[in-house]
Design brief:
about 475 residues; mainly alpha; Growth Hormone, Chain: A; about 0% strand; Facilitated trehalose transporter Tret1; glycoprotein; transmembrane transporter activity; membrane; MFS_dom
């Protein structure tokens, strides 16, 4: 970068600004996804307060929190098909309309069943966006800024959680829902003016549109032209093969599909089993336990939300300068340790070895957990799902990967109230901590490094592993 001329620096700045504006559209949709995840934390206490003495059961409370995560799965199922069939940009615009409808349904609901229906719609959209957002951002971004932009999507989810909690702290939940509906509205307007993903256009043999789109996002420098030529050549080969002999089944057998798929399935499961979305969905109840009283729970909740956002801003900077692997291992290790230590501390309080909860200790451990988890294992899967799959299998690969987070998301959020009642908060956090530890060991051995590599280089890496193993086997046989 030091050898760049002033003209080149100006050009890079202009390209970065153009990409950032379009990424902002996806960012706002992810903001709505975060609001969906965090909305139950302010919705449930207000619904219980409105009910007076006849409060909702634990089962109903768990459904209010978890039904959006159940709907994630159905959104994941259609996401891959829609992004491959209609393109990344149009799919996000359609998604925006459904998102707006979901928030409006919640805002004007006059019964618990309509609230559940609205929550289902917004959760469906959250699942739809899960693979779609990272794929679009990954395809339009230059390798130098791809990590930053992809990490910003996780930051937007955390910011959405914070915004929903902030709205719910000062406003009635109906007004909060309407405000949350403005996020996808503005996002849709931005995406309306965005060029389609050049990789998708190339895969559909729309070469002229692909060139125009690529030049809009990346410019016309010699390096960018070389990348464009390689992408068009690669995608043209794939289109010809599809028309002649290849089928989807053949593509799914390729190592550049199933290897990253296995890694991403486990990575997404690890993220959810660390309990990050349980803390988003039941923040007020968790804060009551950690504080030892009901006072200042909303202030503590907002403090945790701000800390989460700060951690993700830090993650954006770190991903720009460091590799994915070291961040993942560091984050997973200290996430598991903070959860295990927190569980031991709460257990000592329960058996009266420690007489009372000391907020300085409990909130300190929770703050450590929030920071280290959101630096690495929370944003990284969303970063990498847009990087590791080949273009022709990216839709189904990212869709299947994010389906795992949907299943795990629903499982953790739905079972959390029952786990709190049966094995206590200490037992629940111990389970999350041990799960994260086991997952981190897996990442240490299997997670590849993608920083600074083009999408074609990442694809070739998985393909080359098979060739290297085959060559090694031949060498051993010949000996």
């Amino acid at each position: 970068m030091c050898s760049e001329t002033p003209v080149q620096k100006t050009l890079y700045c202009q390209l970065f600004t153009g990409e950032a504006i379009i990424v902002l559209g996806t960012f706002l949709l992810s903001l709505s996804a975060g609001a969906t995840a965090g909305f139950s934390a302010v919705l449930i206490p207000q619904l219980q307060h409105d009910k007076g003495h006849k409060k909702y059961s634990t089962e109903m409370v768990s459904w209010v929190a978890a039904i959006s995560s159940l709907a994630l799965l159905f959104g994941n199922m259609i996401s891959g098909y829609l992004m491959d069939r209609f393109g990344r940009r149009l799919s996000q615009m359609l998604l925006s309309l459904f998102y707006i409808g979901g928030w409006v349904t919640i805002a004007f609901a006059n019964s618990i069943h309509l609230i559940l229906f609205g929550r289902f719609i917004t959760g469906f959209c959250q699942g739809w966006l899960g693979p779609l957002g990272p794929v679009f951002v990954g395809e339009i971004s230059t390798p130098a800024y791809r990590g930053l932009f992809l990490a910003s999507l996780s930051l937007s989810i955390a910011s959405g959680v914070f915004m929903s909690h902030l709205f719910g702290t000062f406003l009635h939940w109906t007004h909060s829902a309407l405000l949350c509906g403005t996020f996808p509205l503005v996002g849709c307007i931005i995406l309306y003016y965005a060029p389609e993903s050049p990789a998708w256009l190339a895969s559909n043999n729309e070469i002229d549109k692909c060139i125009k789109s690529f030049q809009w996002y990346r410019g016309t420098s010699p390096a960018m032209k070389t990348e464009l030529d390689k992408m068009i050549l690669e995608q043209t080969k794939k289109v010809d093969k599809k028309r002649k002999i290849e089928t989807l089944t053949t593509n799914l057998r390729k190592p550049e599909f199933w290897k990253p798929l296995c890694i991403m399935l486990i990575f997404f499961a690890i993220t959810q089993l660390s309990g990050i979305n349980v803390f988003c969905a039941y923040t007020t109840e968790i804060m009551e336990v950690l504080l030892g009283s009901k006072s200042n729970t909303y202030a503590a909740m907002l403090g945790i939300d701000i800390l989460r956002c700060v951690a993700l801003v830090t993650a954006c900077i770190m991903l720009r300068r460091m590799g994915r692997r070291p961040i993942a291992i560091f984050s997973g290790t200290f996430t598991s340790l903070s959860l295990i230590i927190l569980s031991i501390y709460l257990y000592l309080v329960e058996i009266r070895v420690i007489r009372h909860v000391k907020p300085l200790i409990s909130l300190g451990l929770t703050a450590t957990y929030i920071v280290v988890s959101n630096i690495g294992i929370a944003p990284l899967p969303w970063n990498m799902v847009g990087e590791v799959f080949a273009t022709d299998t990216k839709g189904i690969g990212s869709g299947l990967s994010v389906m795992m987070t949907s299943i795990s998301f629903f499982g953790t959020v739905k079972t959390a109230p029952a786990m709190f009642e049966s094995i206590g908060h200490h037992g629940t956090y111990l389970f999350y901590g041990m799960s994260t530890l086991v997952g981190t060991i897996f990442l240490f051995f299997c997670l590849p490094e993608t920083r600074g590599k083009t999408l074609l280089q990442i694809e070739e890496r998985f393909r080359a592993e098979k060739k290297e193993k085959l060559k090694a086997a031949i060498d051993v046989t010949s000996v």
